[in-house]
Amino acid sequence: MTVHPILEVSDVKKYFVMKNGLKKDVIKAVDRISFSLEAGKTLGIVGESGSGKSTLGRAIVQLLHDIEGEVLLNGKSIIGLKRKELQKLREDIQVVFQDPYASLDPKQKIKKIIAEPLKIHKKPDREKSIHEIIELVGLPVEFLERYPHELSGGQRQRIGIARALALSPSLILFDEAVSALDVSVQAQIINLIKKLQNQLKLTYLFITHDLSVLRQVADEVIVIYRGKLVEKGKVEEIIDQPVHPYTKLLVSAIPEIGKPIVLDEAGEEEKVINQMFEEGEDGCPFYSRCEIRKSICLKKFPEISKLSETHDYYCHGISNKKEI
Amino acid sequence: MLKKFLIFAFVCMFLIGCSSNESDAEKTGSDEIESFTFALPIDTQAIEPFNGTSTTSATVIYQMFNALTRTSPEGEVQGDLAESFERIDELTWQFKLRENVAFHNGEEFNAETVKYSVERMLDTSKQFGLTSDYLFIDSVEIVDDYTVNIITKEPNNGTPLSLIYLSMVPKEYIEENGDEYFAENPIGTGPFKFQEYAKDAHVKYERYDDYFKGKVNIKELTFKPIPEESSRIAALESGEVDLITDVSINQLNRLEQAENLVVESFPTTRVSYIGFNMRKDSELIQNESFRKALNYAVNVDSIIENLLEGNGETIPAIFLSHFNGYNSGIEPYAYDVEKAKELLEESGYDGESLELAIAANTKQLPVVEAVADMIREIGVNVEVVQKENVLMREEVAAGTISDLYFFNIGGAYNSSELMSRIGFGSVQRYSTFFNSEMDELRVAANSEMDEEKSEQLWQDYQNNIYDIAPAIFLYQEYASNVLSSAYTNYTPRGDELILLEDIEKNE
Amino acid sequence: MFHYILKRLLQSLIVLLGVLVIVFFTLRLSGNPIDVLLPPGASEEMVEIYTEQLGLDKSLVAQFGIYLKNIFQGDFGTSYYYKEAVTGVIFERLPATIQLTLFSFLFTLIIGIPAGVYSALKSGKASDYIVRIFALIGQCMPVFWAGLLLIIVFAVQLNLFPTQGTGSFRHLVLPSITLGLYSAATTVRLLRSSMLEVLSKDYIQVATSKGLSKRKIVWKHAFKNAVTAILTVLGIQVAGLLAGSMIVETVFSWPGIGRLVVQSINNRDFAVVQAVVILIASIYVVINLLVDILYSIINPRVRLMKGSSK
Amino acid sequence: MIRQIVKNKVALFSVLVLILVVLFAVFAEFIAPYSPEDQHIESKLLPPVWDENGNSSFILGSDELGRDVLSRIIHGSRVSLIVSLFGTLLALIIGTVIGAISGYYGGKVDAILMRLVDIVLAFPFILLAIFVIAITGPSVFNIIIVAGFATGVNLARVIRGEVLHVKENDFIEATHSIGANNFRIIVLHILPNIANVLIVIATLEMANLILLESALSFLGLGVPAEVPTWGKMLAEARTLIISNPWNAIFPGLAITITVLGINLFGDWLRDYFDPKYVEK
To answer: Do chain A and chain C touch with ≥3 beta carbon pairs under 8 Å?
Structure first.
């Protein structure tokens, strides 16, 4: 039996236009990314900071405007919806944000924060739902009367999750949802997230730069570099048998848990890349940092190469499978 | 370090302040006054004599120019550049001119000058501020070098008087250099020669040694506009200026006690009254009993005594006692609350609320507030409203001004001119009182050649005004000037012009 | 940067046009100069002649069109009251106002900066309170009242300065202080609080505990904060330029733009008021642009351009 | 909060001053010995009671029309407070609406609104006040409108900056993600988060409006003739500043002390709302 994918993303693009006086610079934050996700599964989106993974997440959940390409949720297109339809869509997709400090309104009590989505979507029995939800995320009911600043980071993130759960969505986007937390707290939250997935049959998009977190939560992974998808596969395939030089770089840096990987020695290389973008050529953005680069990499972004049914990569440098 | 810097900064401020302390230049010579500074309440509007419409501008201009006639300090008309004048028929006045008078550049004054000056004034395309005052003149005829006839459009008793503001200007000089140049570098026949004019800062003159009445004592004369009264007084007290005008009555007591100052308080031609807006469609205001009731309600004597400290005269029918045709038989409306209430009853006043308008920033606001208080005493609801000056005048002209409005107008030189300025008459722009019989009476009085008959007509006119009561008649205002006691022989003038020709050093 | 400035200048032109429209029409709604120009006894005939000669008989829109056209030819009109070109009338007054403004700014600096730094360093001590109270009072006094009090004390009683007028450096002292009082007080308060903020920062504490000269650190930061405070105050002062100078110039009989504009409004001297407003608005716009640019130079974190991303 | 005020002497002083002024304004009829309009022209321009020429029935002396200066100051607090309170309220409304819309929506809306704001700011405010009051006539209402409008436009810039700042917070995006519309976000999430700043600004603007009213009175554009205000009393007494200085000093002190009180209170509020301060 084939499971119908809950989310299908094809050729999604999000370009930003920077006006610089009379010149216009186009920044391709997300460029032609496609993937699909089955119900009840977790897709990890991984990349360095600035790779465009958060933009991709926001593009999928329609927190950004002017997105090209196609995003289907349960088979229905959710791109370019009108206000009312978009409002309706919000019930189905929820987001848990990175910073548990900044993502809760400091002026509102927890009760109000959790109740807000219910209120907006005019759900009945709010009082009861709130109690259920807060217990679901493992916090005592007394917390409802508190303000965010009276809570710890982990507790706050539980509130963030509770808010996302309030409307019983079919898809939740976790945007670096645990990266701001201490390692011990991180584990607790990851456990909660996984428990909830099983319990409520939830589908997750999980954005992270941290491969150890990824291994714990994700079923499938896509690797993003500068807006381009460079490798896609099951979590074991990506972490244990990375193919793309960028993925390899990420994987080799795993031990430094929690720290964003800063390998980019900007300067010269930045310039090359910027030039490339300016000239409108569609080369491989990893070119400047790549150890196996070829001249063609500057001119043309590689086609898809399949390593297995589930494992794809995009690289000119790898000529045959044996080299891997 | 910081502390040192702070101290240094303060010391600097003070040193800078004290270092260039110029000592007042010692006035040398026996009768000569090296320099004399006169503070004005506003800047002169122009030094082009034909644009000086305000009293202040006239004061600045008149040190430099002469007209055919001039009034004595008491208001009598006298010859100035004219030696004599007479009316030779209803419309024609003949002037005999002074000989051997020269402008500051040596140009000769003669009949040509008079003709040129009058015609320049009458040229409406030049937009001179004073032109409209002289449109009653039809033409000027030169009889000989030193005799001219001025012919008016209508018979006008006041012709010689009205000419006091028509300065004689040098024909050749203007024709050669143009009006614009003249407006910046004026030349006249007066006791002072123009030196320099910096707007809002000063006007500087220097003595003209060949002045036809003999050279004056002041060698250098400076006018400084100081708009803020307290600053003006401060400048006089600190010795920066020698003469100030427009001083509040409240200040006079204190200044009189100062040893080095002399206060001159004297009656002017300025009348204060509260007009009824009779153009308004209000039965109450049209009602004579109501207007009289208010006149009885206001205790003008108390206002003069308490608020003006005696610096004012009552004006029973708004006419001034030194003007032609003054009717001394009219007694002012007495302060009589009972009678006022009686008349109010008669008028059928039913408690409606009235507005009493006064121009914003007018010194007489306390007077008006006191009047309003007195009117309220007899049971009339009245509220004082301040209106921006220009808008107030526009409203008066349009007849849309409040029921009552305070006006204070000076500059008239005879009865006819006073009536036209305060706007009692159908042809006046600022009139709120139209009465064709009164208009006819006024024209007749002004054109009657027989002086006695003319006087009689004016007296009738005043009786009528008193009876009709188109205003609450308040008082004739006094002006107060304060002079440094280093000088003397300063003659206050009813027309508020200040002529410095006779000023001497005090021994 | 160049593009930014160009864009700001273009926007400024739009702003100036807006200002011009407002002043042009409100002025004409607020009364007619004829009543000022003619003596009270003037006849209707004379009023008509004047109205036509001044072009006031045309429709407001037509008048505005003519005015705009003339401006582009560099002609700002003729003063009804002074009967000469407006540019001349204004440029005659301008030096006096610039002088006064510059010196009041100088006063602001001389008093405001040391007092602000001093107050921050002595924070909590009696001397700090004294400086702060003076600063607060400086901000709380109506300008004309302060001016009159200064005249009475320093000119009349102590006879240190002249009461009014222009001429020497001494004439500048009292009006400059009066005009600069508010900004000096503001400088003190701004500088004190920004200095305190810096002084409480960890790295300063660390630096001082390591034995680095406190004075050196203080001066370095004092300088940077002072410049920022000055720029802020400069902005405030320019915004209040006309209001302040209107009052100070009246109190001290200073022959500047402020007094000119008061008189010109009273006289409905349209062309003069319009030109002064345009001048003041232009100064405002230019100074603000300069202040913004300087800000970005001093404090590179404040970027002139905001990207359109996220 | 009250405990904090009592602890801080400066705050206590400022609050006491403000309470006193409010009491004056509310109960003027009961506190003032005379009606502010009562004229006694026979006993005009009296010095205060402690002067040798003073009169015990006029504690702070009398003015040009023999009106009791104390009564006028007590009644004058009313207009000063009304102008500053309602003017500030109006300013806050205008400033918040423009600032919030401009800061929140950004882009073209922001550009257009800010250019309009620039026009008003580049236009010398005092002239605007003169024009409007000249045309509409002096009334407390008109002064509130004019002052509130101009101050509000000025505030719009500050508030816009604050909104931009708050807008950057994740919780705004989070609120978006649960389906809240813009209006809800502005009203329920942005405004409460800039309330602290608004309160502090409000106190400072109240102080400025009292000064503005006195400046307008100086230029002869204040409130109607018979309404006593501090600004007008001061402006009217300025010619007497040498001969009868008390007439100018009392209203001047009333303004200075009240403005000082409001300013100090504003300063204290700023510290109070500043988390860094609380931590200390």
So the answer is: yes
What does residue A172 show for φ and ψ, rounded to 5 degrees?
-120, 135
- Residue D244: CB atoms within 10 Å: 22
B231 vs A22, higher pLDDT: B231
Could you please state the CATH topology (level 3) that the domain comprising A5-92+169-246 is classified under: Rossmann fold (3.40.50)
Q: What is the pLDDT of residue A253?
A: 66
- Asked, for residue D51, whether it belongs to a domain, the answer is no
Lowest mean pLDDT: which of B321-335, B487-501, C34-48, D60-74?
Answer: C34-48
Does D52 fall in a domain? no
Distance CA A151, CA A42 (A): 28
B200 Cβ partners below 8 Å, 6+ apart?
Answer: B43, B225, C93, C253, C255, C256, C259, C260, C263
CA distance D12 to D265: 9
Residue D71 lies in a domain: yes
CB contact under 8 A, D174 and A95: yes
**Nearest CB partner across the interface for B307, out of D37, D41, D239:** D41
| Smallest Cα distance from C308 to chain A, Å | 6
Helices H / strands E in chain C, number of each: 13, 0
C-beta of residue C288 within 8 angstroms of C-beta of residue C235: yes
The whole domain housing D168 covers 7-38+58-272
Q: Is residue B112 within 8 Å of residue B126, measured between CB atoms?
A: no
Distance from the Cα of D220 to chain C's closest Cα (Å) equals: 11
Q: Mind listing the pLDDT tens digit for each residue in A46-97?
A: 887 777 888 888 888 888 888 888 888 888 888 878 888 888 888 888 888 8
Residue B260 pLDDT > 80, yes or no? Answer: yes
**The predicted structure's pLDDT at residue B169:** 94
Give dist(CA A300, CA A269) in Å, integer.
Answer: 18
Pairwise CB contact (< 8 Å): B370 & D244: no
Where does residue B476 rank: exposed (0-12), middle (13-18), buried (19+ CB within 10 A)? buried
Q: The domain spanning residue D225 has which CATH number? A: 1.10.3720.10
Looking at the structure of chain D, the number of domains it has is: 1
Structure tokens that stand for D85 in this block: 């309170």
Of B506 and C20, the structure prediction assigns the larger pLDDT to C20
- D contacts of A104 (beta carbons < 8 Å): 171, 174
CB-CB neighbours of C57 under 10 Å:
12
Task: List B residues 345-384 in contact with D (Cβ-Cβ < 8 A).
Answer: 358, 360-361, 365-366, 368-370, 372-373, 383-384
- The more confidently predicted of residues D278 and A204 is A204
Angle of the D245-273 helix axis to the C143-150 helix axis, nearest 10 = 130
Q: ipTM value of the model? A: 0.76
**Residue-wise pLDDT tens digits, A231-285:** 888 888 888 888 888 888 888 765 444 444 444 444 444 455 555 555 556 778 7
The pTM of the full predicted model, rounded to 2 decimals, is 0.79
* b (16+ CB within 10 A) / e for A244-263: bbbbebbbebeeeeeeebee
Give the length of chain D: 280
Instruction: Give the Å distances, CA to CA, from B402 to B281, B296, B398, B420, B441.
Output: 11, 21, 11, 21, 28
More confident site: A101 or C147:
C147
Each residue of A102-135: pLDDT tens digit? Answer: 888 888 888 888 888 888 888 887 888 888 888 8
- Whether the per-residue pLDDT at B333 is higher than 50: the answer is yes
* Separation in Å, CA D83 to CA A50, C118, C144, D264: 53, 36, 20, 19
Whether D278 maps to a domain, the answer reads: no
Boundaries of every domain in chain A: 5-92+169-246
Q: What are phi and psi of D36, to 5 degrees?
A: -70, -15
Q: Hey, are the CB atoms on C2 and A21 less than 8 Å from each other? A: yes
Physical contact, B and A (3 or more Cβ pairs within 8 A)? no
Q: What are the Cα distances from residue A56, in Å, to A44, A165, A205? A: 12, 22, 11
